[in-house]
């Protein structure tokens, strides 16, 4: 209980800091901000928090989560200033929603697995939509359009699978991958730009579904590949510099040779 009280006091302190920054004699920059102007910072802070989690440094994670929490409070307070909603109401509404959507914890319903929890969650969301003027919610949910495309594709496939609209496993996906790859090759051969664009998207979407069936998040896999490429590329630059040469002066064959050398040193 003391820890809960301490956390609450810390939250209130952040709210008070935001109020002070937004006061008439507060910070000129903070007083100038709007929810629209802060959108980019919300995304940046969220990505920085994700990066810190990937790095695994607890102190850095705490710092980045703190920055993100402060910004969320800031944006919510801007709406409170306009009378759209207040922080207390926001917190109470969120708490009520979490309790309502976890009847296996706060109620009598039983759930023995994560899959059961997800299915129950979806049913509860559909029931909530029926009680309001909102249209019936799709099993796909309302994924944000700002979500990275790979992650969005992953989540769409994941949600469609909940109603059985899915391949049975990676083995069944290989023919689809080959089919989409062949269609892409044919579109390129015909010189049809729009068809090539569409077929490339189809191939990527199929590969994302393959990664899901392999238990791999494609966003994470691609991010790690990009990071490896960056590190290898920088090391290649340094190796050529050590030989008194600039990378742009080397031939592709020379760069490939050094690249393979770098890869072999990683093993």
From TrEMBL:
It catalyses: ATP + H2O = AMP + diphosphate + H(+). Keywords: Hydrolase. Residues 33-106, 170-232 form the NTP pyrophosphohydrolase MazG-like domain. It is an enzyme of class 3 (hydrolase). GO terms for biological process: dATP catabolic process; dGTP catabolic process; dTTP catabolic process; dUTP catabolic process; response to stress; TTP catabolic process; UTP catabolic process. GO terms for molecular function: ATP diphosphatase activity. Its EC number is 3.6.1.8. It holds the Pfam family MazG. InterPro entries: MazG-like_dom, NTP-PPase_MazG-like_C, NTP-PPase_MazG-like_N, NTP_PyrPHydrolase_MazG. SUPFAM superfamilies: all-alpha NTP pyrophosphatases (SSF101386). NCBIfam families: mazG, PRK09562.1. This is Nucleoside triphosphate pyrophosphohydrolase. Belongs to the nucleoside triphosphate pyrophosphohydrolase family. The keyword Mitochondrion does not apply.
């Amino acid at each position: 209980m003391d820890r809960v009280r301490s956390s609450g006091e810390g939250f209130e302190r952040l709210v008070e800091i935001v109020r002070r920054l937004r006061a008439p004699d507060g910070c000129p920059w903070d007083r100038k901000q709007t929810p629209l102007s802060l959108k980019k910072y919300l995304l940046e802070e969220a990505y920085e928090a994700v990066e810190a989690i990937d790095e695994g440094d607890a102190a850095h994670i705490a710092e980045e989560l703190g920055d993100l929490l402060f910004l969320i409070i800031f944006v919510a307070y801007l709406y409170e200033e306009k009378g759209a909603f207040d922080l207390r109401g926001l917190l109470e509404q969120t708490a009520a929603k979490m309790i309502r959507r976890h009847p296996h914890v706060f109620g009598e319903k039983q759930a023995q697995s994560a899959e059961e929890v997800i299915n129950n969650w979806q049913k509860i969301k559909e029931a909530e939509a029926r009680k309001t003027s909102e249209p019936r919610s799709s099993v796909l949910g309302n994924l944000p359009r700002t979500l990275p495309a790979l992650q969005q594709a992953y989540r769409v496939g994941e949600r469609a699978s909940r109603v059985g609209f899915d391949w049975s496993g990676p083995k069944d996906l290989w023919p689809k991958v080959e089919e989409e790859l062949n269609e892409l090759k044919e579109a390129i051969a015909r010189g049809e730009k729009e068809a090539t664009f569409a077929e490339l998207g189809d191939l990527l979407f199929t590969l994302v579904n393959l990664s899901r069936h392999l238990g791999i998040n494609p966003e994470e896999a691609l991010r790690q590949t990009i990071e490896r490429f960056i590190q290898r590329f920088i090391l290649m630059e340094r190796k050529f510099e050590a030989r008194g040469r600039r990378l742009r002066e080397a031939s592709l064959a020379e760069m490939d040779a050094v690249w393979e050398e770098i890869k072999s040193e990683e093993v």
